[in-house]
Design brief:
Layout (H helix, E strand, L loop, with lengths): L12 H9 L8 E8 L4 E8 L7 E6 L7 H4 L1 H9 L7 H10 L6 E3 L3
Antiparallel strand pairs: 1-2, 1-4, 2-3
Length: about 110
């Protein structure tokens, strides 16, 4: 089953998201940020502090709509990401993942 949540504005939608995903703490501000891409696209990966939940950082990929074509340009990255899906991949591990896909220059910001 494919699921996406647009907002919690429909009756019962909030209850569904809580049942499916559990109670989530507010994400707040990112604490680590990494950019990667080529001359054709740029992707941002932010790590959020979920220590209230389980004591770790959680990665969240952001691609603006004018860059969605990036999905078709980075199948190797998406395949590598699928192999670690469900794991808490920390920034250094993600940099290694990118390096294994041929990316040699990444920028990592330490804090927001």
């Amino acid at each position: 089953m494919t699921i996406y949540l647009e907002s919690a504005s429909l009756p019962g939608e909030q209850e569904f998201s809580v049942k499916k995903f559990g109670e989530l703490p507010p994400m707040g501000q990112w604490v680590r940020r990494l950019w990667f891409g080529t001359e054709d696209f740029e992707v941002i990966v932010n790590w959020y502090d979920l220590s209230e939940r389980d004591g770790s950082l959680a990665a969240c990929m952001e691609i603006f709509q004018d860059e969605w074509h990036a999905f078709s340009l980075m199948p190797d990255v998406l395949e590598a990401m699928s192999k670690v899906s469900g794991q808490r991949v920390q920034p250094e591990k993600f940099k290694q993942l990118l390096a294994s896909c041929g990316y040699t220059c990444v920028q990592l910001e330490a804090t927001n």
